[in-house]
From TrEMBL:
One Pfam family of this chain: LepA_C
Record carries keyword Ribonucleoprotein: no
Binding site for GTP: 103-110, 175-179, 229-232
Entry similarity comment: Belongs to the GTP-binding elongation factor family. LepA subfamily. Belongs to the TRAFAC class translation factor GTPase superfamily. Classic translation factor GTPase family. LepA subfamily.
Main location: mitochondrion
InterPro entries: EF-4, EFG_III/V, EFG_V-like, G_TR_CS, LepA_C_sf, LepA_CTD, LepA_IV, P-loop_NTPase
Function: Promotes mitochondrial protein synthesis. May act as a fidelity factor of the translation reaction, by catalyzing a one-codon backward translocation of tRNAs on improperly translocated ribosomes. Binds to mitochondrial ribosomes in a GTP-dependent manner.
PROSITE patterns per UniProt: G_TR_1, G_TR_2
Record keywords: GTP-binding, Hydrolase, Membrane, Mitochondrion, Mitochondrion inner membrane, Nucleotide-binding, Protein biosynthesis
Biological source species: Sphagnum troendelagicum
Protein name as catalogued: Translation factor GUF1 homolog, mitochondrial
Localization (cell): Mitochondrion inner membrane
Catalysed reactions, as listed in the record: GTP + H2O = GDP + phosphate + H(+)
Length: 697
């Protein structure tokens, strides 16, 4: 019996799609073949439906009535394809290489990953959609990688270079995100690797995330293969970039590879370099099993799927494993590699990276960084990962209060696949019952919002993001504030010190913009730490900045000042004491808790004014006058008024004398006074977003 994978199923679909397309397309909910650009799309859109479609269509051929009820893995189907059985025991650690592709945003990681998958025949040229490993809808729409993705490839290494003899190698490639919000994904991916391809755009040169990622790999003691990509561009300057790499990281120009992931130029040198320069995993095959849990997600059909790296030992289907954190035991029901889809192999050996399905009911049981070992064989746990640090918090509420249960379900499902979001329940006078969520950054928050709407159909209101502050009281107690509304002045306690988080920011910019950037950073309360030159034309600035000044609108400002030429990255730094105040927003004297914010005292007036102004533009006019105020405690620092909508009470008063008209207007005024007392203001969704831009200082 041969097991075949979804990948092979795609090949099956591909080869029979023309003969039997209608049924497959119907089950994949694609009306006609011309709408499906490739069989991969059919597979992706229908996931397990097409394989079932295929199996049921093949029933007649195979003369097996219960064909479609057999689990996919147990089915023997070979249609026009050479039968291939993957035997992982043929790949001891010295024939395995695990590597990540790291780079600044848009330097071509996912495109290079695609080319390498094609080169090794893992996906077919032309069949895979561009950026094959960017699987989420949000990744495709935004053209960014959000989740690190692993893919296994097999490569026939022929040349027998330094220290490696010819043979067939198993390569695990991890495509990582480039945006600073997702650098946690990068650091986690590096734990499963012994080396990296450090990609640099031949025209843009070294950028801020190149520096950050280089040091992540360097500190993890990984082999670094520098690759200058996009050499096909007209303004490519590979020699200049080599000099930058030498100056900044002491990289030998002789060791730099030159590629174009677009045209394929130079790609033939990449995988041989991986085999020759990246060491093989160091684990011990005969030692007790130790397996690092890298990531997990929830699949409707299979349950929790864990991505794992086998550090020592061997794991087979049917064995029992135990978690070092929860001490729960599980049966290994399915095990295999990502080739590039889930491909059962029945076994994973030392140094290999793959997936395990073990009957975990929720991803909360699958703790990222956990060590899994053979049940009852207690071993020394692996160091694991530092927990994800939440940089911004925001309230997430159902747009319609009655949708709370649906939102609850949607958030639960989504956090199963994105464990880096923290969720706690909260309630707001203005918005009802909802959740306070912690994110790795604003882009992460945006992506979460988009995924909630697109993947789970939830309509939500996200409140103004805030960073986590600490308030220290005179009695020695401390309050962690993730929601400004939680900071009440009537607690009776005197605030001694306010602490705000800071970051160490790296900015790389053409030299002519240095002056404007220094002004921007000092306006944002930044403290200059370092100023150096990358090469003759570009400088590197290091600033310590309050996190709240960075997360909101800093990046856009930086890009507009430098016409898009500067790049920016940051890492978490320590808390600093600061003069912070809570800025309340009052509508007709009533504080709207969801609009409260914490700001630096020196900026409170300005932010208050901008906020009132913004709200004036987004709030609809009511039948009564609406006063918008920003206040620190009982002191109002800014005010705007939205005049009442005035009904033309004189419309029916043709001619008539002045006293009659005045009487009508007086009567209208009385009515409005009454409405002011009883009326309530409707706050549209944009009002909450408006604060985002307001903190531009
Ligand atoms: N001219 C040229 N364009 C390339 C090359 N490689 C990638 N690109 C283009 O550069 C853009 C970004 O490529 P991606 O592969 O998405 O970059 P990435 O580094 O994965 O991006 P993030 O995941 O968002 O960090 C795309 O439009 C690619 O088509 C290349 O070698 N030459």
């Amino acid at each position: 019996m041969v097991r075949f994978s979804v990948r092979r199923t795609a090949q099956v679909v591909s080869s029979i799609a023309r003969k039997l397309p209608q049924e497959a397309l119907r089950l994949a909910s694609i009306p006609c073949m011309s709408q499906a650009s490739s069989s991969w799309e059919i597979c992706n859109r229908s996931r397990w439906k097409v394989p079932r479609a295929v199996t049921s269509l093949l029933e007649g051929k195979c003369r097996c009535n219960s064909f479609s009820t057999v689990p996919l893995e147990e089915v023997v189907v070979v249609v026009g394809e050479k039968e291939e059985r993957i035997d992982l025991t043929q790949y001891p650690p010295h024939l395995v290489r695990n590597f990540s592709i790291i780079a600044h945003v848009d330097h071509g990681k996912s495109t290079l990953a695609d080319r390498l998958l094609e080169l090794t025949g893992t996906i077919r040229k032309g069949l895979g959609q561009p950026q094959f490993l960017d699987k989420l809808q949000v990744e495709r729409e935004r053209g960014i990688t959000v989740k690190a993705q692993t893919a296994t490839m097999f490569y026939n290494y022929g040349s027998g270079g330094i220290g490696s003899s010819p043979g067939r190698f198993l390569l695990n490639l991890i495509d990582t995100p480039g945006h600073v919000d997702f650098s946690y994904e990068v650091s986690r991916s590096l734990a499963a690797c012994q080396g990296v391809l450090l990609l640099v755009d031949a025209a843009q040169g070294v950028q801020a995330q190149t520096v950050a990622n280089f040091f992540l790999a360097f500190e993890a003691d990984l082999a670094i293969i520098p690759v200058i990509n996009k050499i096909d561009q007209l303004n490519a300057d590979p020699e200049g970039v080599k000099t930058q790499l030498k100056t900044m990281f002491d990289i030998d120009p002789q060791k730099v590879l030159l590629t174009s992931a677009k045209t394929g130029q130079g790609l033939e040198h990449v995988l041989p370099a991986v085999i020759e320069r990246i060491p093989h995993p160091k684990g011990v095959v005969n030692a007790p099993l130790r397996m690092l849990l890298l990531d997990s997600y929830y699949d409707e059909y299979k349950g929790v799927i864990c991505h794992v790296a086998i550090v020592d030992g061997v794991l087979k289907r049917g064995e029992k494993i135990e978690s070092a954190v929860t001490r729960q035991r599980y049966d290994v029901m399915d095990i295999g590699i990502l080739y590039p889809e889930l491909t059962p192999t029945g076994i994973l050996l030392t140094g290999q990276v793959g997936y395990v399905v073990s009957g975990m009911r929720s991803t909360h049981e699958a703790r990222i960084g956990d060590t899994l070992y053979q049940a009852s064989m207690v071993v020394e746990p692996l160091p694991g990962f530092k927990p994800a640090k939440h940089m911004v918090f925001a309230g997430v509420y159902p747009a319609d209060g009655s949708d709370y249960d649906a939102l609850c379900h949607a958030i639960e499902r989504l956090t199963c696949n994105d464990a880096s979001v923290s969720v706690t329940k909260e309630s707001s006078g203005a918005l009802g019952i909802g959740f306070r969520c912690g994110f790795l950054g604003l882009l992460h928050m945006d992506v979460f919002h988009q995924r909630l709407e697109q993947e789970h159909g939830a309509q939500v209101i996200t409140t103004t993001p805030t960073v986590p502050y600490i308030f220290e009281y005179a009695d020695g107690s401390k309050l962690n504030v993730q929601n400004p509304a939680a900071l009440t002045s009537n607690s009776g306690k005197r605030i001694l010190t306010c602490w705000e988080p800071t970051v160490m920011a790296t900015i790389i910019t053409p030299s002519e913009y240095v002056g404007s950037l220094m002004t921007l950073c000092s306006e944002r309360r930044g403290q200059q730490i370092e100023y150096s030159f990358v090469d003759g034309q570009r400088a590197m600035l290091k600033y310590r900045l309050p996190l709240c000044e960075v997360v909101i609108d800093f990046y856009n400002e930086l890009k507009s000042i430098t016409s898009g030429y500067a790049s920016f990255d940051y890492e978490e730094a320590e808390y600093q004491s600061s003069d912070l105040v809570k800025l309340d927003v009052l509508l007709n004297g009533q504080a709207v808790d969801a609009l409260a914010t914490i700001v630096h005292r020196s900026k409170a007036h300005r932010i208050g004014r901008e906020l009132c102004d913004k709200l004036k533009n987004v709030l609809d006019r009511q039948m009564f006058e609406v006063a918008i105020q920003a206040a620190i405690g009982s002191k109002v620092v800014a005010r705007e008024t939205i005049p009442a909508m005035r009904k033309n009470v004189l419309a029916k008063c043709y001619g008539g004398d002045v006293s009659r008209k005045r009487k009508l207007l007086e009567k209208q005024k009385e009515g409005k006074k009454r409405m002011k007392r009883v009326g309530s203001v409707d706050i549209p969704q944009e009002a909450f977003h408006s604060l985002l831009k307001t903190s531009k200082v």
